[in-house]
């Protein structure tokens, strides 16, 4: 199934960008201040994730006029659009129908940032353009379920719909980290382009959001849901809320 960029998701990202640009004029009128280093951390949401995709951290250093180089890392849970949460008839617990693996992407990134508009010390918005990329370390971890037999014996096993086809016998998901010892590594690459809108009441604080698009590709197809169209290339739109400091 082809990934759908829903109208609501894209409209929200575009609205956030327009909201940031609406504040740029105020920042220009109030003057600007300089800094040479910045460290931020944040939480992200994207079109390949649930409510929260993952965490990110980034260090940036001034290398030229209004230009920074950055070193960052992101840890994200990548989901398949056909992941369907169901309620067990046996226990009332939930499980993911057909899901066979989790995919966690660890993304070290090197990037460049260009300051398009600077903010005043205590008001306004700073707008940065960002281009970053790097290798991806994909961690593929089996998804476990609890399965009941006729004799009421319950086992915790990696979910294979061919071996355990009767969904009415699924008690629920197994322990989240049960399959960590069986994880496999899938290497890949990632690249992103985005705009960051930075707010902050105090000179050395930074709060804001980053919105843009990301493309991630692995060396082989990764199965997340049995019988679905699984892929090795994952495009996504994303937004990240961040907080940090600068000096």
Structure description:
The chain is built from two helices and 13 strands. Strand 4 and strand 5 form a beta hairpin. The longest helix has 15 residues. It is elongated. The protein has one domain: Porin. The N terminus is likely disordered. With 247 residues, it is mainly beta. The strands form three sheets. It has an eight-stranded antiparallel beta barrel. Strands 9-8-10 form a three-stranded antiparallel beta sheet, with no helix packed on it.
Please tell me the CATH architecture by its name. Answer: Beta Barrel
Q: Please state the overall shape, judged from the principal axes of the Cα atoms.
A: elongated
Helical stretch count? 2
> What is the CATH class designation?
Mainly Beta
- Strand fraction: over 45%
> If you consult CATH, what is the topology?
Porin
**Order of adjacent strands in the largest pleated sheet:** 1-2-3-6-7-11-12-13
Q: In terms of per-residue confidence, which ranges show pLDDT below 50 for 5 or more consecutive residues?
A: 1-5, 20-32
Key descriptive features of the protein:
247 residues, mainly beta, Porin, eight-stranded antiparallel β-barrel, three-stranded antiparallel beta sheet, 2 helices, 54% strand, elongated
